[in-house]
Structure formats: structure tokens, C-alpha cells
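Letters spell out the chain; backbone shape is given numerically. Both lines appear below:
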Amino acid sequence: MSEVKTRPEEYTRGKPMPPQGTAGGYDQNWYPIALSRDVKAGEVHGTEFLNGKVIVVRDENGKAQVLSAYCRHLGADLSDADVINGKVVCPFHKWGYDASGQCVETMTGDKPPERAKLFKFPTEESWGVVWAFNGLEPFYESPRPTLTEEEADFQVEFDHMTNVDHFVPYSNSSDIQHLRAVHKIELDVDPQNVERWPGRIRYTQEMTIPGMPKITQIVNVFGTNCLVFEGEMMGRRVYNMSAGKPLPGNRTLHTMMSATTKSAGGPGEDEMVKAIIAQGIAFGRQLFEEDDMVMRSIHFRQDTLTETDRMLVTFLRYVREFPRTDIACDMIS
């Protein structure tokens, strides 16, 4: 019997995508951490993030801040802390941290060690979401539509969990074969007309959704975890956003937002605005639900592709080249 010493190329599944949390850490994205309405003054909001856990607190001016969740003394979970006189007070030994993450007092009166500092993520708050950037300095703006919050009516929800790295569901917007086969969406997009900036790409696509007229849609890709779609429906500008927050175990919790220009109070306009927003959220949920079975069992790998996958190749190359960091990983785990 002859021995096969090298595996023939036809028996390999192509080039794997390095899992998040390995090969340099996690993508340097803006991630949705919590809904604004869940982060209350005078309270600590704890939540899973990346390979561990963070807390969200508001300073004396109401500004949200995302910090690592474990006390620098012996690692107590500060999600269980009280906020006393503006300080996050550890439940184990009562060390107090200010909103910048610096330990400023101990119960015994010992001088707080200079190294007793939580990791402070760059934090922004917009569109009903508290965002944190994975790194020290953001190199692109946090995700948002082109209109302002004051110009819009909108709804935002943490709405769906997938057991895959965050980029996988967002590859769907450039996966023409998938959109046709599963979602029955006809799509036309030219990968040669992709605009690029640091941390962002944008392109225009023509799409036909069952039961709806043909739509010209602008797709804004922020980082590797967020899509903001802009188009028109019933004579109004409409905006839909979906963004993923990576959790331990390569899970992703997704945020969805639907918005349109604010009602001017004309006849039937309030009802139309509500209907558009509800339809946007419902459509986003539908897409996730239709993909749910696949996302539960997929072993994603860039394998044998065809001509129709040209836009998908562009997106996957963008993902592979995106910078990563593990700078916060030890602090939050």
C-alpha cells in the first residue's frame, strides 16, 4: 500500500480566518456595549465583552465610560460594586475607583497603588448605544447614519445572538450567492466601486427584495462588525444599522437600529414613521432568523469561490487586513 506523504490540495478546505482572540487579539472596532437606557446614573452596568467582562458607569456629568470589570487588588467583579459619592466601590475590600478607572481610595487608608487602575476604553454614546473602541486611540469614527439624532425617529435593540465571530454575519451583505439563495434578494454591486478610508468602506448596491420595489442602497461598513444601510422608502430616507459585540467563546450579540427622518406631523405621517421603523427592525430580525440554522453549525473558511463571489472576496480581504489588539484582554478576564 502506497503512503500519501503530503495531502493533495484538493483535500484542503482553503484558507481559514484566524479566530477573534487569537493572532493578535480582537479587531480594533467600535463595539456596541450597552443600550443607553440600561446605563443609569449612580449604578454599575456589567456586561460580557471580548474575552471577559467590562463595566459601564456614568461620571458626574452623565458621560458614559467603559472600564475593565475586575478590581486591581484581588480581582473582585466590580459589576457587583456600589457607586458611592461618584466612586465605584469594590464589594470585597472597598477600594474606590473614579470614572476614569483610577483607584483613589482604600478602606484602610493605605495610599492607593499607582498601578491600581482599570483599563479605560475610548467611549462614545450615540443613537441610544454606548460604544467602546478596542484599543487606546480610535482611528475611525464611531458608527452612525449621515443624519443627526435630532433629525430622526429611531428604535434600537440588542436583539440576536450568534455563535460565530462578529464578521461572519456581516459578510452576508457582500455575499451575493447567499442573499439570493436564502433571502431571495437579487443584488447587483461592483467591487471595483468600493470607497475606502481607514477602518471603513462604502459601496452602493441595487437590490430587489420580495414584495418590494427595486432599491438603491448605500452600504457603510464600519470596522468589521457594523453595517449602516441608507436608502429610500415611501418617499422617506431610511437608515438601518446592525453591529456586533464579541463575547467570550467566539459568540456575538447583535444590536439593530432602524431610523427615518423625523415626522413633521402631517396627516398620517406619524403612523408612516412608526411603520417604517417597525419594518426595519422586523426585516433585520428576519434575516438573522433565516440564517440561524447555518450560524449554529458553520465552520467558516474561505474555500472554493466563483465569479459571483468577487464582492465577498473584497470584504474578506478587508477583514483579514484589519488591525487587531489584545491590549485590554488581560485586564478584563
In short: The helical segments are 167-170, 176-181, 269-297, 310-320, 329-332. The chain has two domains: 26-133, 149-322. The longest strand covers residues 236-247. The chain has a mean pLDDT of 92.
